[in-house]
Amino acid sequence: MTEEMKPVCEIDPMPFFCGSGNACFTACCRDLNQALTPYDILRMKNNLGIDSKTFLRRYTSRHFGPDSGLPVVSFTSDPAFGHACPFVTESGCSVYQDRPGSCRMYPLARAISRSRATGKIREYFALIEEDHCMGFGKNTGQTVRQWLDSQDVDLHNHYNDQLIALISLKNRMMPGKLEGGHADIFYTALYDLDTFKKQIFEQDLLGPIVLPVPVVDDIRTRDEALFELGIQWLKYQIFGIEMTWS
C-alpha cells in the first residue's frame, strides 16, 4: 500500500466522498492497526452500554511506548478476521455515531501547534491519498472545513488535544520513560474511566483533596468531566501541579 500526503487549507475544496456506493467501502476498516484515544473509548463504551473495563478487555490490547512508557491502546488485532475493526459490518460501521476520531478525520491528517504564550492552537491538515481508496475525485462542492464540520470532529479534537497537551507536558518535564506505577495511573485515569470513578467515590482516591460540590455532581454524571478531572489528577500525581477549578 502506498500513500501520498498533500497539505491542504480549510478553504480548499474537499474532493472526497465515502459511501456504500464506493467499490472500496469498508476497506479502510480492515488490515487495521489503530490506536484509540481515551475519548474514543468513552464514546464507544457508552454507545454499547458497557463499562470501560469490559470494553477494554473485550475489544482492545495495551502496550507501552518503548521510549515514553506511556500506554498505547489499540483495537485487538485478529488475523482470522483480516485484522478488521471489531465494529465493521458489510453495511458499514455499527457504532458510526460514536466512531473514533481518526475514522472521522480520514482521509485527512491533522497536526497542531500550541502557543505557549496564549495557549491558542493552530491546526494543519494534509490529505492522505491511498491506493486502495476510491473516494477521491468526487465533486462534493464542500471545502475542507465544511467536510470536517459534517464529520463532527471538533468535539473529538477538543478532548484529544487535552491528551496531546498532557503528553507534551510529560515530555518537557519528565523526558524518557514513564515508569510502572505512573504508567498504570495514566491508563486508569484516562482510559478506564469507570474504574477511575470507583476509585474516587468508593476508595477515597483523592484523599485530602476536596472537590467543589458542582465538580462532584459533574463527574458523577458526565464522563467528559471525569476525563478532564483525570487530566488534572495526572498533572498533580506525576508532576505536582496543583488541581484547580474554574
Computed Rg: 19 Å
| Average pLDDT over all residues | 92
Q: Name the helicity range.
A: 40-55%
Q: What is the tally of helical segments?
A: 9
Q: How far is it from the N-terminal to the C-terminal residue, by CA?
A: 48 Å
The helix-strand sequence is EEHHEEEEHEEHHHHHH
How much β-strand is present in the residues?
15-25%
Strand order of the largest sheet: 1-8-7
The helix/strand class is alpha+beta
Shape: globular
Biggest sheet features: 3 strands, antiparallel
The number of domains is: 2
Name the poorly predicted regions. none
Number of strands: 8
Question: Can you characterise this structure?
Answer:
With 246 residues, the chain is an alpha+beta fold. It has two domains: 157 residues, no CATH class; 64 residues, no CATH class. It is built from nine helices and eight strands. The protein has a three-stranded antiparallel beta sheet, with no helix packed on it. Strands 2-4-3 form a three-stranded antiparallel beta sheet. Strand 7 and strand 8 form a beta hairpin. The mean pLDDT is 92.
Main traits of this protein?
single chain, 246 residues, alpha+beta, three-stranded antiparallel sheet, 9 helices
Could you give a quick summary of the protein structure above?
The protein has 246 residues and is of the alpha+beta class. The chain folds into 2 domains: 3-159, no CATH class; 176-239, no CATH class. The protein has helices spanning 38-48, 52-59, 101-105, 144-151, 154-173, 180-190, 193-202, 213-221, 223-239; strands spanning 3-8, 35-36, 60-64, 71-75, 88-89, 92-93, 108-114, 121-130.
